[in-house]
Specification:
Layout: H1 5-16, E1 19-23, H2 27-32, H3 39-53, E2 59-62, H4 64-68, H5 71-87, E3 91-98, H6 102-113, E4 123-126, H7 136-145, E5 148-154, H8 160-164, H9 174-186, E6 195-199, H10 206-209, E7 221-224, H11 233-240, E8 247-251, H12 253-256, H13 262-280
Parallel strand pairs: 1-2, 1-8, 2-3, 3-4, 4-5, 5-6, 6-7, 7-8
Helix pairs in contact: 3-5, 3-13, 6-7, 11-13
Length: 282
């Protein structure tokens, strides 16, 4: 790849706005789009989103689980959507949240981060809850191939706090440790590093209360929850503060409910981009 993921994402956010559109073929959305809930419907759904919005937003984020539920044919549909997004010149973040140890983590890295793999987009979401060091194969694969990672850090589900807000014997929270590990990998990288975090747009003051220094990460902060899940400008400002310019806001249903008409999808995405720019770049 011509440049590291962090640099390519920073350029895309500057050009198109700090918005990522999720490609989440939920059964209800498939029905609303008059598509079957099978692999062919998933493929059609994803390709319509790419056709409508490719080259117009900073990134796409296909949700792997919603494709995987249809087995090998669903995975083939995911491969087609990833390929279409990249062919359209839009960054693709595969939302698979993989996390394991040793050779198994290396296998996931090979599947999602290796040049030539049909599942490899430009970045992958990963889970650090077997220890941040367990992600080493993914870190090596991502940085070695010019790709990126988004590491779960402060998620918006209420159960997440049980782990992420917990503190060790030194009083440091799990979330703060994760952020510090990512920051170490991004140190001195300009304009920003390629190892980012997933921080829910609706987490409120969780970063402050857990001592998590998001601004110091020097990497992108993927923020799901914009739109339908309730996060707007005030919520984004509260959650991210001084780190707002690093945030890539993610909207899925908030944009997708406007489909399947391409013009309506573009209008919804443009509105979400304007909201994100106002909240994060104003």
């Amino acid at each position: 790849m011509s440049a590291p993921f962090g640099a390519r994402l920073a350029a895309a956010m500057d050009e198109h706005g700090p918005l990522c559109v999720g490609i989440d073929p939920h059964p209800g959305l498939l029905e609303a789009w008059d598509l079957p809930d099978d692999a062919s419907g998933l493929r059609d759904f994803g390709l319509r989103v790419v056709d409508a919005l490719g080259g117009r937003v900073a990134a796409f984020k296909p949700q792997a689980a919603l494709f995987e539920r249809h087995g090998s044919r669903g995975l083939a549909a995911l491969e087609d959507v990833v390929a279409a997004g990249r062919a359209a010149g839009t960054l693709v973040i595969v939302d698979a949240k993989r996390g394991d140890i040793g050779s198994t983590m290396a296998g996931y890295a090979d599947a999602f981060l290796r040049d030539g793999s049909p599942l490899a987009g430009d970045a992958l979401t990963v889970s650090p809850y077997l220890g941040f060091g367990s992600l080493e194969p993914a870190v090596d694969a991502a940085l070695g191939s010019g790709r990126g990672l988004f590491v779960l850090c402060l998620t918006s589900n209420k159960e997440g706090a049980q782990v992420q807000h917990a503190r060790d014997a030194d009083g440091v929270s799990v979330a703060a440790r994760i952020a510090a590990e990512a920051a170490a990998l991004n140190r001195d990288v300009e304009p920003m590093g390629s190892v980012g975090l997933v921080v829910g747009a609706t987490v409120g003051d969780a970063a402050a209360s857990t001592g998590t220094d998001l601004a110091a990460v020097n990497g992108p902060l993927l923020a799901p929850g914009v739109g339908v899940q309730g996060a707007g400008g005030p919520e984004l400002a509260r959650a991210f503060g001084a780190a707002r310019r690093q945030v890539l806001a993610s909207s899925s249903r908030g944009v997708l409910v406007a489909g399947p008409d391409a013009g309506a999808l573009r209008a919804a995405a443009a509105g979400a981009v304007a909201q994100a720019r106002g909240a994060l770049r104003g």
